[in-house]
Design a protein that fits this description.
SH3 type barrels; elongated; single chain; 154 residues; mainly beta; binds zinc ion; binds cytidine-5'-triphosphate; 2 helices; 5-stranded antiparallel sheet
Length: 154
Amino acid sequence: MAERTLRVSKIKDGTVIDHITAGHALDVLKIVGITDRVNGIVTVAMNVPSKTLGLKDMVKIEGRELKSQEVDKIALLAPHASINIIRNYKVVDKQLVRLPKVIRETVKCANPACISNSKEPVKPTFYVDKEEPLRLRCHYCGYIMEKQDIPKQF
Ligand code: CTP
Ligand code: ZN
């Protein structure tokens, strides 16, 4: 059945993060630094029916574009997300987030004894063993990080 109304309104200028894995909208807000106080309009939709994902979350941020570091973090928790840049109500750019095979510096190893958590000058590095559910393997100590270990760090 065709939708009779828009669930959330269109935005004029800003970013729409669409196709977020259901359950991760609040993690995405945390990644982009939207916590207790907000400047400008932010719209959050959770558990919206999606043709491809079953259910999805969505975040719309007026007047803001994302930094590439923020996009890299979103990819870890929502590997199917799309980042839509809106200018004057039109989608002027649409990018799918992507998870590289090797993740550097975005996350820290959860093993306190790992050399990457010491004073040694080594950068946290992980291999993506599995995309969904996420499994990252530390290059230095082999520790396995799963999706639930990650949002706590952001
Ligand atoms: N959107 C918005 N404000 C606008 C334009 C678009 O909030 N002025 C939102 C749409 O509601 C949608 C997303 O941005 O959630 C992407 O828009 P569009 O590419 O037009 O939608 P689809 O074709 O459905 O995108 P996709 O194929 O990525 O699902
Ligand atoms: Zn490690």
